[in-house]
User: Fold this.
Amino acid sequence: MKAPIPAVGIFDSGVGGLSVWRELVRLAPQVPTLYVADQAHVPYGPRPPEEIRRFAEAVTRFLREQGAQVIILASHTVSASALWPLREAFPEIPFVGIEPAVKPAAARTRSGVIGVLGTLGTLNGPLMARVVERFARDARVVPRVCTGWVEQVEAGLLEGPEAEACVRAHLDPILQAGADVLVLACTHYAFLAPLIQGLSGPEVLLIDPAPAVARQALEVWRTRAGEQSLSLGPMARFFTTGDPHRFQEQLRQLIGRDGPVEGLCWDAAERSLTLEQGLRQP
Ligand code: DGL
Assistant:
């Protein structure tokens, strides 16, 4: 069997992590990537941490088999539930996680009120409590679980009256509380950023962590795989546990990318992933 190409693995419950993939490939077009979307289980936000950990371990094993040398948890929810357990379970592989970007928000707020938009799993988790305690003692942090936004992005509903109404339902209370900086603490929300910015007005600053996460992952990748790894060739493989044809359309809509998507199957106990035989043709 041919040895797999060393690559950066990227993992999210769905399309949200594509916001990180896009930044990574913009910074380093020659870095080989493997992207897994666990769309059979999206959204992760309301799920218990133990369940997310179980999914994340199986995805990690799969990404390792396919050649991942570094894994980006391109999901705040996965990072909140699984980053430390994964580091313990797979000490041989570096993981890059994401925490709510409260630190840069605290440095930029003028009103002293920071809105943090995220999922239940992220905003209720210990990682969130820690960043608020460390970086925002002098600010007022207003967390908001934006129920429905992940599903909205998965459905491709990024503009128009319906999309606007869903976004307003969570955004208005935060703006009314006086927030002048909004932290996008869910990678899916990056795709709603134009809508959120339009509704908030130019005075409000949005912080999307994707560029910083991509920069950090690239540093780790360089250290791990060496400079020559930056010119291995622009290989990008996309996998989903959902419908590969649908994911292809989402790639087109969200990141303007055409290309095959490989289907993955969970085993019955949802502890391991295997590649579907052959690519399904549309
Ligand atoms: N995009 C992920 C995050 O950053 C997961 C969202 C979900 O599946 O609920 O939190």
In short: The longest strand covers residues 7-12. The domain at 7-98+211-275 is CATH 3.40.50.1860 (Rossmann fold).
